[in-house]
Amino acid sequence: MKQNLFVYNTLTRKKEEFKPLNAPHVGMYVCGPTVYSDVHMGNCRTYISFDLIFRYLQHLGYKVRYVRNVTDAGHLEGDADEGEDKITKKAKLEKLEPMEVVQQYTVGFREVMKTFNTLPPSIEPTATGHIIEQIEMVKGILDKGLAYEVDGSVYFDVEKYNSSQDYGVLSGRNLEDMLNNTRTLGGQDEKHGKLDFALWIKAKPEHLMKWPSPWSVGFPGWHLECSAMSHKYLGDQFDIHGGGLDLVPTHHTNEIAQNMACCGKNPARYWVHTNMLTVNGQKMSKSLGNSFLPHELFSGNNHILTKGYSPMMVRFFMLQAHYRSTLDFGNEAMEASEKGFKRLMNALSLLDGLKSSPATEVDIQPLIDRCYDAMNDDFNSPVLIAELFEASRIINSVHDSKLKIDQKNLDLLKNMMHTFVFDVLGLKDEQTENDDLPKIMDFIVDLRNEAKVNKDYATSDKIRNGLQQIGFQLKDGKEGTTWTKN
Ligand SMILES: [Zn+2]
Description:
- Helix content is about 45%, strand content about 15%.
- By secondary structure, the protein is α/β, with parallel strands linked by helices.
- It has a four-stranded parallel β-sheet. A four-stranded antiparallel β-sheet has the order 5-6-7-8.
- Helix 4 (about 130-145) packs across helix 7 (about 220-235).
- The protein starts with 5 loop residues before the first strand and ends with a strand.
- It binds zinc ion.
- Zinc ion binds next to loops.
């Protein structure tokens, strides 16, 4: 292993040295999407952040089992214990089977994740595939006397649990504060206490997704699936549990309570949370009308965007903020980031052609050490990117013959850039991605020249301006027309 890694732990509210339970194995569980609509940008940020963590742990030599669930049942509207299931509601609206909704948005989610070049998790378990495990967990909690049944539904007894454990251990809030500040979340007439939450919910006749259980034909509470599936694939206790910061007060708090009640252990040693997205300083939300979907961000087809951005550019932009800071999507910030991304990619394209000198005026090892220092300091990607810009300056200076580098340092520089840009940050050069692009561009340039020959200037101007808008410049010279990409 390289230098020691420190991770901010929400549970202890400080950075702690990362010591896996069974090195070199690492168990990591991240709460996945509820597949009833297109994945939103906040989720994309969370999964890109955990992809960075997954990649870096693997780079350090750990064998990571990364489990990210797919919620395909049991998640009710408003995260409540009563009301309509998000997937069922969508299925009724679109006259589809719930599993058709699940399939459509699971496929869509995976496509977006691939577009952002995130690595697939080791296991992607679904809630519907683990009903038996969830029922077993409810039984375990009932056996410990920490849950109770009312008319076919089973609720977790928070106040009883809190008499021997700290229910607010993750959020840092005490029970009294929570009791005073909790809005009721459905099923209240059946619950003994205001904070109690459903483990199993008896299905109303109109509810489509339901299963037999010892208590009723019903379905599991939303928080239960993550407890049951993390336990199944990672054991009583594992290393990292992650998700968005919004999951801390309820979903993750309840997960800890369930696992503690059933299995006697806080399931994870390091609780890692990603911060939220804002748009021009405001929380991104559908109701404020300032949210956009990944494909709108790529095409620029949304009223708050001045243009589109490529997936790798968006990934780079997100990684330029630390995962625990809020990230503000503003057009100016994205345009500045785009310039930086291009600078980095241009430097990479020059790297292979650099010539070494017998002597060196630059020492790369301290720069490499600083890259590791950045990542070992709670996966600080913005500081890492600043060091990569420093490396880009060196590459440009060597290319311009303003700086000499020997073969040993050049090899270190190449290795460092490839490791951190491609393997750790998970970026790729989109310009070299499409080998057919030059052929397509030559074809378009020929079409334009034909239009010019035919004096159809409207068409030739339309082609030139259209290409300009998507970043291609045409230049007419004596030797013919050449094109460049911004
Ligand atoms: Zn979860």
